[in-house]
Amino acid sequence: MGIRIIRTAQASWSGTVPDGGGHLALGSGAFEGPFTLRARVEDGQHTANPEELVGLANAACYTMSLADLLSTEGHPPQSLETAARVHLEQTGESWSITRIELHTTGAVEGVDATTFDALAQQAKATCTVSRALAGTEIILVAELANDQREAP
Fold this sequence. Notes:
Layout: E1 9-14, E2 21-26, E3 32-35, H1 37-41, H2 50-72, E4 79-91, E5 94-107, H3 113-126, H4 128-132, E6 137-144
Parallel strand pairs: 5-6
Antiparallel strand pairs: 1-2, 2-3, 4-5
Helix pairs in contact: 2-3
């Protein structure tokens, strides 16, 4: 049997969905806070929502995967930054996460844009969270901040 790692999180809720609210907590203790329906459907709310958490999980996992691939190739990144945009859409009578757009920018010495993009695409395909979200379209835009055309 291979290595097995289990991580935990929990959520609670009180009240109706439109008027109530909940509390989120990571098992590690690294984050805990409120979440509400308003945060899902209105901008400017200062509470979490499940879609942001899915986007964060995808961005974090993907960025770590890309850092690993770059390091394995002998080019540990000076920095990688990834933003996620999660699309929540009503399709028929159900709501679905229909698309996640990842936009990553990296400062990596000795890597050209073509290699960076190839490793970025590989990281998207192999990241555990992206694989868990296989039913959702995940779009990736990868940019090399140091804009090197050829590796030295």
